[in-house]
Amino acid sequence: MKKVILIGAVSLSNKEDGVMQKFLSQAHAFDELGAQVDCIGYDRNSVVVSHYKNGRFQCEEIIAILKNIKSRRFSLWLGVRNYIKTQKYDLAYIRYPLIDFIVLRTLRSVRKSCSKVVIEIPSYSLEIKNITTIHKGLYILDHVLHNNCAKLVDKILYVGSKVDSIFGCVAEQIPNGLPEQIKQIPSTGYRFEGNRIVLICVSRMNFFHGYDRLLNGLAEHYKKKNDYVVDVVLVGDGFCRKEYERIVETNGLIEHVKFTGLLKGDALTDEYRNATIGISTLGLYRKGFTEASSLKTKEYLVRGLPFVYAGNEIGLDDSFPYALKMPNDASVISIDKIVDFANRIKVESAELVKEKMKAYAEEKYSWKRILQKACGEYLN
Questions:
Q1: 376: in domain
Q2: CB under 8 A, 24+ apart: contacts of 363-368
């Protein structure tokens, strides 16, 4: 049996953490591919080695103690370095940490103990601009040192615009896969009754979500005579909420836009059950991206809810009939196009659409499929 170790700055005891959910899903995928899987990450005030078994990580060994918050990064990579020197693995799968001197030394030890080394960059490209002063020094150091990866890493997997190599290493574009938690959520389908269309936006309302484009499009929709009532439900909270509220108030959209705040569980599912169309990220261009792989589109797929997005969604075919692609720029979102899209969907039953979308999600975005394609050669 092949041995795989996952390494990253991940809180293994926080089941709500998105990175932890991703690690757990990747561990599950490697397990399904027939490997024995270990993981190094944080567990409260320690750095631990955990073994994946029966759908969860089980702590096997404490390899470092976290004395304070400032020492977390150093303790993690020093702990990895000391532990890996005495081990042998067929594959090390590392979440990109930004390269400094301790990480570089650790990678050299990993290279000696592991037959193959793969790094995953969750969001590429790495740019120094728009980085906080606290972290800017680390990004600058990474920029100086990261080309040392070429001799230490067999492949870099990344989510971002297509490139042939990164830091002198072979690079392979991947989508974000389906977290195991997403697979468990209810498939709610879509609801389109009479002439009312409900658009649902679920996010932390960051600048790149771009819902201002949608709200400005809604304002244009109600300036002219039309046959459809289009309402927007904004679930979540965040930096841009005040701007969205201002657009709604200024354009007299209060009766057509609802802000729910943060929702979970049944309350969130109820909002999904009333929705016609899901809205994914509309402002990738604000991050300088043309391509991305949004977890929200995966959730819409699993729920069986047709959706709207902008830019290129990695792994999603442009011809996929239950997704509507919008321009990745500052233009106003056309509500007329969304109405036409909803009417095209309406010819199929919600149950049939739900089945097709969920099957597509499993085919395109299962971590087992993604990692088999990207790392299967290292597990044979």
A1: no
A2: 364/175, 364/315, 364/316, 365/175, 365/176, 365/177, 365/178, 365/298, 365/301, 365/315, 366/29, 366/177, 366/178, 367/25, 367/26, 367/28, 367/29, 367/177, 367/178, 368/28, 368/29, 368/32, 368/33
Would 333 be classed as within a structural domain?
Answer: yes
Question: Could you list the residue range(s) of the whole structural domain that residue 11 is in?
Answer: 3-173
pLDDT in single tens digits along all 380 residues of the chain:
999 999 999 999 888 788 898 999 999 999 999 999 999 999 988 999 999 998 889 888 999 998 887 789 999 999 999 999 999 999 999 999 999 999 999 999 999 999 999 999 988 865 545 555 556 788 888 888 999 999 999 999 999 888 889 999 999 999 999 987 777 888 999 999 999 999 999 999 999 999 999 999 999 999 998 899 999 999 999 999 999 999 999 999 999 999 999 999 899 999 999 999 999 999 999 988 899 999 899 999 999 999 999 999 999 999 999 999 999 999 999 999 999 999 999 999 999 999 999 999 999 999 999 999 999 999 98
* 127 phi, psi to nearest 5 deg: -120, 145
Domain containing residue 360: CATH number: 3.40.50.2000
- Whether residues 161 and 303 fall in one domain: no
Q: Domain count of the chain?
A: 2
DSSP 93-125: EEE-----HHHHHHHHHHHHHEEEEEEEEEEE-
Between CA 113 and CA 122 the distance in angstroms is 24
Which structure tokens are listed for 370? 């993604």
